[in-house]
């Protein structure tokens, strides 16, 4: 119940500027109507005075008197209109200022709730923890990528095994075809020392080599 009364009081206080402005505008509307009425009377009495100024001076004089009275009332009415307009503008400006301040206060409260207990120190602390976790993750990945299963493989052993396999294939090919590659024969023949440059071998006819090899194979078969 007390909350209802408190809410009603707050609502009434909030509507006070609005009600005041409505009352002033209503009074201003009435004064503006009076202004138009007095102006019509002034114009009417002025016309009567002009009409009777030469023919009926008493009527013209009475019309001018009524005109002066209406002009005086019009001046008062115009002053009241100016005062009401100034009050309306002042109340509207004050109400706008109040509503603007209230909006800013609500914005401040909202930002306070959003930030909560957040401080620059806590932000720095959180960022530091996050950076540590990122660094730890990278170290874990590097450690996992650096794991070697079994003993490390020697590249020299691989090269030696590949050369042995290649030599084995060449030997099999020689046994199947009964021929020896010319390059192997040149490498195996000694250098001639009769004035010829070292590293050069005499030309050998390929047909003679094949014939000699076949002869050697036949003797071994015997």
From TrEMBL:
GO CC terms in record: cytoplasmic side of plasma membrane; ESCRT III complex; multivesicular body
InterPro entries attached to this UniProt entry: Snf7_fam
Native organism taxonomy: Eukaryota, Fungi, Dikarya, Ascomycota, Pezizomycotina
Protein name: Vacuolar-sorting protein SNF7
Keywords in alphabetical order: Coiled coil, Endosome
One Pfam match: Snf7
Coiled-coil segments on the chain, per record: 21-48
Family, similarity comment: Belongs to the SNF7 family.
UniProt source species: Apodospora peruviana
An individual GO BP term: vesicle budding from membrane
Location relative to the cell: Endosome
Region feature Disordered, mapped onto this chain: 190-210
Main location: other
């Amino acid at each position: 119940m007390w909350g209802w009364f408190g809410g009603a009081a707050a609502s009434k206080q909030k509507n006070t500027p609005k009600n005041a402005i409505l009352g002033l505008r209503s009074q201003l509307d009435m004064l503006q109507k009076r202004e138009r009425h007095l102006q019509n009377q002034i114009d009417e009495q002025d016309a009567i005075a002009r009409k009777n100024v030469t023919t009926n001076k008493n009527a013209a004089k009475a019309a001018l008197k009524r005109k002066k009275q209406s002009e005086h009332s019009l001046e008062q009415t115009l002053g009241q209109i100016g005062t009401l307009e100034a009050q309306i503008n002042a109340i509207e400006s004050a109400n706008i200022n109040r509503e603007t301040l209230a909006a800013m206060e609500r914005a401040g409260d909202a930002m306070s709730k959003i930030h909560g207990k957040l401080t620059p120190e806590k932000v720095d602390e959180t960022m530091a923890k996050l950076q540590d976790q990122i660094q730890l993750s990278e170290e874990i990945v590097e450690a996992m990528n650096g794991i070697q299963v079994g003993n490390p493989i020697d590249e020299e052993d691989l090269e030696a095994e590949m050369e042995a396999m290649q030599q084995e294939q060449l030997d099999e090919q020689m046994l199947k075809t009964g021929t020896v590659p010319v390059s192997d024969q040149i490498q195996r023949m000694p250098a001639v020392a009769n004035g010829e440059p070292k590293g050069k071998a005499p030309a050998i006819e390929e047909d003679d080599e094949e014939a000699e090899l076949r002869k050697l194979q036949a003797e071994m078969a015997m």
